[in-house]
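Trying the structure run again after the queue cleared.
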Amino acid sequence: MRTISNKNYTIYHLHSDLSNGVTNIDSVTKYYEYIETAKKCGMKAMGFAEHGSILEWVHKKNKIEENGMKYIHAEEFYVTENDFNSAVMACYQSLRNYPTIVLDVLEYRSDNMFMPSFTSGSQDKYEINHFQDNKTNSLIADIWEKSYSAISCCNVMIDHIQNATINADKKLQFEAEARFIRAFHYFNLVRLFGGVPLVVHELSDGEALKMPRESVGKVYEQIESDLIFALQLPDTYDKSDLGRVTSNAAEALLAKTYLTNKKYNDAKTHLNNIIITEKYDLLTDIKDVFDVNNEMNKEILFAIKYSKTLIDGGHGMWLSLSDVTLGHFSDVLKGAYNSDDARAGLLEYKKSGSVYLPMKYYDIQDVSTKDVGNDFIVLRYADILLMYAEVLNEESFDTDINSKNSGFYYLNKVRDRAGLPNLTSLEVPSQSDFKKAVLNERYLEFPLEGNRWFDLIRTGTAKEVIKAAYDIDIPDYRLIFPIPSAEVEKVNNPNILPQNPQY
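Done. Tokens:
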């Protein structure tokens, strides 16, 4: 029992069968079991910080009221500055599933990872890797469910902070953080599924069932709006708040959004804003960027925080392989590295306790939790430099490698850190060749960081690259994923939530 602001709460961390399907079954407790136990203990009211799909809170509310207790709504939770800070922390918590999405979906969709066969429990990943996935794939369903659960969490906080009587600067900061996180989730959803339901407010069960798919353009408009709002965030924090979203992180994600939509001038503006701050730089040794003892270093604009010593605080072996021959880096990726490239060593596996980890995310396994706790880097300065090289090349093919107006200058900064020689117009003689050079450098720089598949899609090269790597012909419709069948069936109206064609 905790006492907060003269209010008594009993706080539980709930894992349900819906929200944590990959967790060992012994750790799973159904929400109605909590409710029944609460009734037996004489509790008068309950509320849930939602950890399921858009509609899950409705089931919990109904069950609580069936048992004669009051359902506590967010309006009663969110009063003080501490209350809203806790709400924002719940939004950050929603990002913790992202590394799983990166490995199980994004990396296996690209030419970074290859699974020659599957074993029990890995069929869904195999199907994604071989472009055989369907609308019942559990990994795809998990992305949809957890993304909308996270969006719902952000929406509740944003809605209720509008009338909050708290410090104005904190009020602005909390809303901006939630809008950044909401934009991040929508950015992933729209690139994976195409147009999706655009939910920007707290919904009732009836309203949720009537939310139609919006156009891709409308979704991007919302993403841009949220990120422009987030530019008002502080550019730095005290040490105690290190890891929160900054204005620079918002600017970086906004630039990536503009680049995705070929708005090169807009992307250039925001990338340049980051570069001229001189707050960020490439570390001399690429290994130091990912060192668990060097988190939130000068190269990192935003990372998802973990702590392996806390129960549920680590990222849970999402990189582990009991047998490194079963799902591994593709021969194509491993063969792409020059023998002098310092980045190649980051792909080597090393055993930690009972699991294998690639060196990029190596950490000593905690004895108690059996977890590893590296932060997961979402945005870093090498990405800024390579995006800037790309947009400068779109503006003009400047071959002066020493000019800060030339894409070569920024591309070669990343190559130099990797131990590679400068590229010049002799090796890269045209604007189109430069595009290929940047794409290849991104290929070598960002394995296991969730960039490759999205890079292939936005550059229109996915079909040719996968054909060359795996001899798989990708039908056009498989460049996006199917809407999970469970979501389509809930709505049961093709005019509101139609399935993507041919799925």
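Strands lie at 2-4, 7-9, 45-46, 70-71, 113-114, 300-304, 328-329, 349-352, 355-358, 376-380. Worth checking whether this holds up in the mutant runs.
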